[in-house]
Write a structure and sequence with these properties.
105 residues
């Protein structure tokens, strides 16, 4: 299986941080249709360097863990989640780490 860890910054430009209700709605509308067999979301405290300015940013982060079979449309489904979050919440980027794993559910 492929394990994908996605890192979603929760600071939203021009307003307060992403709320739990907003995350729940996003997960129901975007994450679940793309990965109906499951995922796990946790909270973290993220840090990253803005490539345009070089400034270090820190913000609360939602971490999404997905273990999925390697199917032809897997990359498209991961991109759909990332692109939807960036568009909906005006984010510059969403971090992603992927690696192979043996997994069973």
């Amino acid at each position: 299986m492929l394990v994908a860890e996605l890192f979603f910054g929760r600071n939203i430009p021009g307003r307060g941080p992403l709320t739990e209700a907003e995350w729940t709605e996003f997960a129901a509308q975007i994450v679940t249709p793309n990965f109906p067999w499951g995922s796990t979301a946790t909270y973290g405290q993220g840090q990253w360097q803005n490539p345009a300015t070089g400034q270090i940013g820190r913000e609360p982060t939602k971490i999404l863990l997905i273990a999925a079979k390697r199917e032809p449309d897997l990359a498209r489904r991961l991109s759909a989640v990332i692109d939807a979050y960036k568009t909906r919440f005006r984010q510059q980027s969403v971090g992603i780490i992927t690696h192979d794993a043996c997994a069973a559910f």
